[in-house]
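Researcher: Structure for this, please.
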Amino acid sequence: MTESTLKPHLDHAHVRALLKEMIRIRRFESKCADLYTQEKIRGFLHLYDGEEAVAAGIIPLLGPADRVVATYREHAHALARGVPMGAVLAEMYGKAEGCAGGRGGSMHLFSRAHNLFGGNAIVGGGLPLAAGLGLADRLEDADRVTACFFGEGAVAEGEFHESMNLAALWRLPVLFVCENNGYAMGSALERTESETDITAKAACYGIAAASVDGMDVVAVQVAARKALAAIAETGAPYFLECKTYRFRAHSMFDAQLYRSKDEVAEWREKGPIVRFQTWLETNGLLHGPEIDSIIAEVDAEIDEAVAFAEAGTDEPVETLSRFVMSPDPPPPPPPAPATSAMRVTTYRDAVREAIDDAMTRDPRVFLMGEDVGRYGGCYAVSMGLLDKFGPDRIRDTPLSESGFTGAGIGAALAGLRPIVELMTVNFSLLALDQILNTAATLRHMSNNQFGVPLVIRMATGAGKQLAAQHSHSLEGWYAHIPGLRVLAPATLEDARGMLWTALEDPDPVLIFENVMLYNMEGALAEDAGPVNITRAALRHVGDDITLITYGGSLGKTLLAADRLWQEHRISADVIDLRTLRPLDMETILASIVKTRRAVIVDEGWRSGSLAAEIGMRLAEDAFFELDAPLARVCSAEVPIPFPRHLEQAAIPQTGTIINAARRVMDAKP
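Model: Predicted structure, token format:
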């Protein structure tokens, strides 16, 4: 583009539109403040008052296919993007007619129709998401831009730095817009950052970066045109810092004790609306009567929006759990055909074959994680796949779990099918924000407008003397979270087939692979295919007691069942849970009705464990079917120790399972 095409044409229609958009945002939010004091809007309410030039100057430049990722202060972004004002206000009222069905509220405005991917109440939480949307565009060679808005407080978050690095490293077409309003909640930038030049922070990652007066709508638009032109030409990210100021409190709860009224008044004198309107009137581009007409138009729209929201309906309580998961899950795969062609392989190779097969069948599938390329990942699962599929689809990542997990979520939102590998379950805690607050919540908060068809694989469990920070079994924690499907493949068939089915699921699926299983060898059908991930499996049949387990403890439990019969003539059902969320209680209850006794084996800690959950459900649903107290075998309540004898003592073993089963059998009905 030439210099002249980068400058906005300030004809009458254009300047009127710019002024009207800013007035529209300002007066809408002023009305929202009034409605908040009347308790018609509840929760947190963060207003954009003073920052209007940023949204008004940038968002109208985006094309319909471009995407917007906003912050929790996003009413202006939604309005400028074209979301109807009535739908925005109804959402803030929590009404079913809201742009997210009333499920998101003020901080979570979504609109699939307008490519508005929502506000994010976690500071910096939208940055990895934007990187993932850009990654999808890069992989699909799509001519789109994702504009990501965030405040200066986000630059202190790790997700800011992880996202800047990923965007620069992978040359992602993302426009990062920092709305620097000077205060992160009540903390001035000078009090929170050793380096207050935010543009310099972004530039140090090799990203083209510029700073602009965010109170000057024309300057913002010129800078945004330049940024978008640069992204179109290079395909690389661009960082735009808009120096602005919010006139109102951080939220309506904020008493603003951290700044003076004189400071706010001084800034109001140079606010974006008064500044632009004065310039227009001075230069004869707009006159008082037309400005009055604009205000009248805006006020009429606001009145209509209020009437729409006031007439809105509450979603019935009966639909409370709707859209926690997709209402249209894929049907379970048909039973695998019987085959006599078997081969010997390992659990590790079965997982590798599953990834290979998925990527061969579906070009949307790609794998990313730390060292998954030449190194094959920490446990060599993906060894050799880089040579077959190349670095775009076998994508090595930096050591930035939150960043690349969030990027996987963004790519899934864009329609791809990412497989994210987290090296160990302990490291997954660095990505917990993205898993819990984004992947698990987006479908419900957006009222089914957005789903996250993402698979996250991770190694779990103890036994390799890796000590406490690499050895825990935390899958029960994730099984606590609505919106996720949690799998624990314990056999070669499941290691091979669960990934196939998981990649067809429209919701996020977490797969926990026990570290002690990777070298497990066994027979696998040549034509092994997808498996049902909704049901538990009965792995051993008996009449006297039910042993319930999953993952790395299945082999120990099966051995315990054999010894119980051989040494004590106690026959046991062994149930492999396979799916930890949702639990297949139907299979468990069917066994309990038969055996009337149960032991639950769980490598998680006893307190708050998955075993405790299953036990309580049995107490609720099968109390009168039980002839003996329930028992459980869990890991000792200690960080997993390094010495082998202590490590083995800390986790369930065959002997402890046998002893627990015998105690239950000896209990009097």
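Researcher: Any notable elements?
Model: The domain at 537-666 is CATH 3.40.50.920 (Rossmann fold). The chain has three domains: 3-310, 342-525, 537-666.
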